[in-house]
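Repro:
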Amino acid sequence: MYNQIAASAPELRGLWKMALCPGTMQEDGSIDRSVPSVETGSSGVSASGKVPAGYGTVIVSLAQKRGIAQEAYRFVEWWTSNEVQTQYAKEVEDTIGVISRYEPAGVKVMEQVGWTGEEWELLQAQMKWIKNVPIIPGDYLVSRSLSDALRSSFDGVDPRRALSVQNRNINAEIERKRKEFRLDMGDRK
């Protein structure tokens, strides 16, 4: 978002800058600036030191059947290397401009993108506050259901009722997915 605003509103240049995410004052006077991330979701640094961006690379089983699994693996290894990702990030930005700044998967590549020294320091400081949120089957329905509840409350539906209905929908979908993937249902039947 920072890049989009910086590139699309040049008249604001010098009137604002990147900052750490707002936080919550703790009892000891410190500020908790935690932001959520997921291993395959929002931008941020995971426990592995990678910057998850919601993308993954797979080699389908058909590659093995066709005898090209090793070639596919070498391609993935090449494509995900720091050198190639850095080159790609720079070429995209050079071609389209700062608004297209690529969010690479690795911190070493992220260092090579065109951040100013001050911006990179802020990004590094914020990365320390990223908390990974586990992904569970069916969790895609959470944000959609919360949005639906909010919208329906604007249409006059009691907000508690709207949340209650959506909570049932969310739980039903998660349970359905757990059954589909034969995941341990714990105490549930």
